[in-house]
TrEMBL record:
The chain crosses the membrane at residues 20-40, 52-78, 105-123, 135-159, 171-189. The keyword Transmembrane helix applies. InterPro entries: DedA_domain, VTT_dom. GO terms for cellular component: plasma membrane. This is DedA family protein. The lineage of its organism: Bacteria, Pseudomonadati, Pseudomonadota, Alphaproteobacteria, Rhodobacterales.
Length: 192
C-alpha cells in the first residue's frame, strides 16, 4: 500500500497543478498522511531548478499550516481523532509517558521530528494534546521544516539529479545523526 501511495505521489509531481498538489500533500502529511512532501518536491525541483526555493517555500508554509491542524487535533479532538491516528502509527501505548516528558523537551522534539524521518504528525498532535505553548510550536516548526525543505532544495538546485539518490536514501539518516550530535553536544556541555 505504501508503495502505491508513493507511486501515486510521484505521478502527481508531473501534473500541471503540481504546486497545489505539493501544498496539499505537505499540509496533510503534517497531521495524517504517511507520505512526506519530499517525494513530490524532489521531481518538481529537478524539472525546474530555477524554482527550487519557491517550491521549498510552498512546502514549508503548507507543512506548518498542516502542523497547526495536527496541533488542533491534539488539543480539541485527541480522543476522537488524535488517539486513533497515533495508535494506527504504533505510538498509542507510550502516549501517557510521552506526554509527561514531551513539554520538557518540546523544542527538541519538534526540531527532531521536523528534520528527521520520525513522523512529524505524531509531534504536531502531541503538541496540541500536551498544550505546548503555541509560539514555541510554530517557531520550532518553521525552523525544522525550513531546514529540511530548503536544504533539499539547495542541494538539488546546486547539484541536480546526481544528488537525488543521496537525498532519497541517505539525507534522513544524516539529519538524524546531526540532531543526535547536537543534542549530545548540549548534554555534554550541561553535565561536563
Amino acid at each position: 500500500m505504501i508503495q502505491r501511495l508513493y507511486d501515486w505521489t510521484i505521478h502527481l509531481a508531473e501534473h500541471r497543478h503540481a504546486m497545489w498538489v505539493l501544498a496539499i500533500v505537505a499540509f496533510i502529511e503534517s497531521s495524517v498522511f504517511p507520505i512526506p512532501p519530499d517525494v513530490i518536491m524532489i521531481p518538481m525541483i529537478l524539472a525546474r531548478p530555477s524554482r527550487a526555493f519557491v517550491i521549498a517555500g510552498v512546502a514549508l508554509l503548507a507543512s506548518v499550516l498542516g502542523g497547526l491542524l495536527g496541533y488542533a487535533i491534539g488539543a480539541l479532538a485527541f480522543e476522537t481523532l488524535g488517539e486513533p491516528i497515533l495508535t494506527a502509527l504504533g505510538k498509542g501505548d507510550a502516549m501517557a509517558e510521552f506526554a509527561e516528558r514531551f513539554n520538557n523537551m518540546g523544542f527538541w522534539a519538534i526540531l527532531t521530528a521536523g528534520v528527521t524521518p520520525f513522523p512529524y504528525k505524531v509531534i504536531t498532535i502531541m503538541s496540541g494534546w500536551t498544550a505546548m505553548p503555541m509560539g514555541v510550536f510554530i517557531a520550532t516548526s518553521i525552523l525544522a521544516r525550513g531546514l529540511r525543505f530548503f536544504l533539499v532544495a539547495g542541494l538539488l538546485w546546486k547539484f541536480g539529479a546526481p544528488v537525488r539518490d543521496f537525498i532519497e536514501r541517505r539525507l534522513p539518516l544524516m539529519f538524524t545523526l546531526a540532531v543526535a550530535l547536537l543534542i549530545g553536544g548540549f548534554y555534554a556541555i550541561k553535565f561536563l
